[in-house]
Structure formats: structure tokens, C-alpha cells
Amino acid sequence: MALAYAYDWLFSTFWIIESKRNDDKVNVYRNMIWPDISGNVLELGPGYAQSLKLLRHTTMKDGSESIDPAFIQAYTVIEPNSFMYGGLQKNAEDNGFRVKYDTLSYPEGAAVATMATNDDSIPFVIVKGTLDEFNNIPKAVLDGAPYDSILTSFSLCTVRNPKATLKNIFKLLRPGGTYYFIEHVRQPKANDPLVIEDNGVNAWFWGKVQDCINPVWKLVGHGCNVNRRTGETISKMGCWNDIDYKYVRPTIDIQSRVMPLSFGRATKAK
């Protein structure tokens, strides 16, 4: 238990720095889909949730920028690493949400002071847990379902069973709801028509590099897998009414070459 807590703390400390660098590289792709997120929202593994700033905002009477209630009515996050909660809460409050903790999954939340500008602020619920197994999904997440929008942002690389997690995402969506995602993946094949930004990367070579480094990367990266074929896994589920996703092979640095992106959306039939 002590080792797990230390592991969580170490990763949360590392992520304070790395998440900003990551956002600088990927927000251009998030911006292609994040403004469409709406309604009753569930986010899986938000970390510090810096991407909240990319949701639809409006100018309030006091001149501040806040999440637009015409687009977002409620926001629930399920995050297993409680060391992320301080930054997560701050980012939510900075974007005008009314934060509360689900004390059934995270009893310590009862002692945490939260701030709300007013009772009309959009509720933001922080839940501790995962979507790995449907029978173990926290009650607060189930009670909030069905969701209009569910999103993952560099989360499916760390879940124990991505196929099971994706099935649970599908179950929690309302009919006609949309799953939004941006994930790093194994290099797609050369000349894959879904690649919209190639930059001359040797896909075969860097795919092999990903396979070789993944055991060590997973150990030091808090369970992160760099060679999952997440886009393909989503598209091959066979349950989506419509799916639209793309690949990007950035060449900014060595890390980017072992972390190409897949991003898009999948819609459940009405």
C-alpha cells in the first residue's frame, strides 16, 4: 500500500511538469473536437484537467471567463490518483465549476474545502475509481448516467483492460451520445489513409522501438503503454453508429516519435 501511494505521488509530481509540455503539443488536435463536448459530461482519468479551458466558455457579468452553461450542464470526473485532486479542483474552480467530492469513493473529500461562485454554478464531481469493471464502477458515476459526452485524454494507455473500459464507456452513454478521445498509440502502418500529419516518420522503425521500450516505459510511466492500437480497438468494437478518427505522426522530439496520436469521436445510435 505504501509503495502504491509513493508511486501515485511520484507520478503526480512528474505530471505537473510533463502535462504542460504535453498540452503544448496536442491542444491543436484537442481543439478540433473539445469545443463540441456538451451536456452531462463524464471524463475518465483527467489528471489535473488543464483541457477544461478548451471547452466552450462565456463571459460572466463580472467579466470573468467561465464554462458556458448553455453547453455544459454537469461534469463528473473519475480519477484513481488522489494526489491529482488539488490541481484538479483548482482548475475546475478556475473555470467556474462548483466542485464537490464523492465521499463514498473518497471519504477524505468530506474535509476538503471547495469553492463555488454561486449555487447556479455548474456542478463538478470528483470521484475516485476506474471504469475497468462495470460491477466496481463507483455509485456516483452510475447515478450520473446516462452521459451525453464521455471523454478520455491520454487515459486508455494506463487502464488494465482497455476493451472492458471502452465497453463500459459505451454502456454509460445515452443513446445518441458521443465518446471523444485523444490517445497516444502504436505507430499506424505506413501510408495509412487515416494519417493526416505524417512528417516523414519511419512508421515501421518507430513501431518496433515502441514495442521494445514498452515494458520499461510501463514501469516508469505509471502503467502507461505506448504501443496500444487504441484507435483500431475503438473502431473494431462494432457497436458505434458512427466513428470518425485520425492519426498524427508528429516529429517534434524523440518522445513524440514514440507517442503518435489518435483522436476523434464515436457516436452511439439513438
Keywords summarizing the entry:
270 residues; two-stranded antiparallel ribbon; globular; alpha/beta
CATH architecture: 3-Layer(aba) Sandwich
Number of helices: 7
CATH superfamily: Vaccinia Virus protein VP39
Q: How would a crystallographer describe the biggest sheet?
A: 9 strands, mixed
CATH class: Alpha Beta
The CATH topology, please? Rossmann fold
The best one-word shape is globular
User: Low-confidence segments, ≥5 residues, pLDDT <50?
Assistant: none
Helix- and strand-based class?
A: alpha/beta
Tell me the helix content.
Answer: 25-40%
- What percentage of the residues does DSSP assign to strands (E)? 15-25%
Number of folding domains? Answer: 1
Distance between the termini: 44 Å
List the helices and strands in order.
Answer: HEEEEHEEHEHEEHHEHE
Oligomerization category of the chains in this entry: single chain
Radius of gyration, taken over Cα atoms and rounded to an integer in Å: 18 Å
- Biggest sheet: strand arrangement: 5-6-4-1-7-8-11-10-9
Number of strands: 11
Mean residue pLDDT: 90
